[in-house]
Design a protein that fits this description.
Helix content is about 30%, strand content about 20%. The chain is of the alpha/beta class. The chain folds into 3 domains: about 160 residues, Adenylosuccinate Synthetase, subunit A, domain 1 (Adenylosuccinate Synthetase, Chain A, domain 1); about 90 residues, Adenylosuccinate Synthetase, subunit A, domain 2 (Orthogonal Bundle), CATH 1.10.300.10; about 160 residues, Adenylosuccinate Synthetase, Chain A, domain 3 (Alpha-Beta Complex). A hairpin with a 2-residue loop joins strand 13 and strand 14. The protein is globular.
């Protein structure tokens, strides 16, 4: 590797989990460095589908050490459920999974505030997952946060919880919510602390030791680049950075320590929640893609909005993250389509633009200029080499690679773990 960062280059749900699982077979350490339980990563192994929200997808490779680094916000109760599910599935965790004590924790009042904020916005709602992500990050930067390390210090936890609830309960009641009982929550957190204690350990030294020894380290990003709080489609975004550069403050990995950045893209585009989506298909083709691609959120179950591949969007995201290779997922979802369209540029105020508009209001009013390509009308799900793909499918992949400007080195043609076509940088 030795230090490789994996990021999603659309609005999330690109299939990062299965790519992390694939790359983790050669990794010694896999670390999650951002987002929280608003992310859902799915890995299919044999007949079993695993959905993760906090634990890195590298956990299914038995020789890897997995880290939930400080940039991840953790719902302790969600994490406990996830650990139990993994253990029941026969996945060994002891000595393999560590959670940074610096991770901020999501509490019930964060989730309640998240829902109340959305209700108060009315038609202008953001479309959040309701998992408390925005409110917990707000507490983090306003010095009201609680961290995983606080769980092991009952007196400190009680003091900080009382301070936080003294403010939050007033907000909750004012917004029509219910006040949270400090004593009850403190006791629930004490129970959670006992369950999580064996997994809490500072992750920064583990990462730096592995990097110093030249071991293979995989940094697993969550959410998509277009949900980034600065460069995404604000305000229809998440609360923190989703960029590859987030490994710095999210895990303590310096920029010069990163060797490769892998961008993950679907062969089409999806997004969940509100916000502009230039290539969205509100027709039978969009419904076909949603049904065939099982485009429903792994975290919320919400149907995803589906549309054609957006090349200006993908090119912007790849440049922003310094990607040197791409993984293309769900090519097989397009197998039945007679014609496939690719967005190559936009019309904005009557002028053609080939770059992705950073301003969300501009993005909302663009007209899309498409290039049409013939479909291949053949199944690709069982194919395992690029040369086996139908000629039209190969041309489609080549065209996307040309438009984005980064080599496509992996192509997923199904949800199964082995449904991957490895492709060299030379295109073979």
């Amino acid at each position: 590797m030795p230090v490789t960062v994996v990021v999603g280059l659309q609005w999330g749900d690109e299939g990062k989990g299965r790519i992390v699982d694939l790359l983790a077979k050669d990794a010694d350490v896999v670390a999650r460095f951002n987002a929280g339980p608003n992310a859902g990563h799915t890995v299919v192994i044999g007949q079993q589908k695993h959905v993760l929200h906090l634990v890195p997808a590298g956990i299914f490779q038995p020789k890897t050490t997995c880290l939930i680094a400080n940039g991840t916000v953790v719902d302790p109760f969600v994490l406990i459920d996830e650990l139990t599910t993994l253990q029941n599935a026969g996945v060994r965790l002891d000595g393999r999974l560590w959670v940074s004590p610096r991770c901020h924790i999501i509490l019930p009042y964060h989730k309640q505030l998240d829902r109340l904020h959305e209700e108060m916005k009315g038609s202008g709602r953001t479309g959040t997952t309701g998992r408390g992500i925005g409110p917990v990050h707000a507490d983090k930067v306003s010095y009201l946060g609680l961290r995983v390390g606080d769980l092991s210090r009952p007196d400190v936890l009680r003091q900080r919880l009382n301070i936080g609830l003294g403010i939050k309960n007033r907000l909750l009641v004012a917004l029509g919510g219910e006040a949270v009982h400090a004593g009850q929550l403190w006791q629930e957190l004490q129970n959670a602390a006992a369950r999580l204690a064996p997994y809490v350990r500072e992750t920064y030294p583990i990462l730096q030791e592995a990097i110093g020894q030249g071991r293979n380290v995989l940094m697993a990003g969550a959410n998509g680049v277009l949900l980034d709080n600065d460069f995404g489609t604000y305000p229809f975004c998440t609360a923190a950075t989703t960029l590859a550069s987030g490994v710095g403050h999210g895990a303590g990995v310096a920029p010069r320590q990163v060797d490769h950045v892998v961008g993950v893209l679907k062969a089409y585009t999806t997004r969940v929640g509100a916000g502009p989506f230039p290539t969205e298909l509100a027709d039978a083709t969009g419904e076909h893609i949603r049904a065939r691609g099982a485009e429903f959120g792994a975290t919320t179950g919400r149907p995803r909005r589906c549309g054609w591949f957006d090349a200006p969007l993908a090119r912007f995201a790849a440049q922003l993250n310094g990607c040197d290779r791409l993984s293309l997922t769900k090519l097989d979802v397009l197998d039945d389509l007679p014609v496939i369209r690719v967005a190559t540029s936009y019309l904005l105020n009557g002028q053609e633009v080939r770059e992705f508009p950073i301003d969300t209001d501009d993005l909302a009013k663009v007209e899309v200029i498409y290039e049409e390509m013939p479909g291949w009308k053949k199944s690709t799900g069982t194919l395992r080499s690029f040369s086996e793909l139908p000629a039209a499918a190969r041309r489609y992949v080549d065209r996307l690679e040309e438009l984005v400007g980064v080599p496509i080195t992996q192509i997923a043609v199904g949800p199964e773990r082995d449904a991957i076509i490895e492709r060299g940088k030379g295109g073979a």
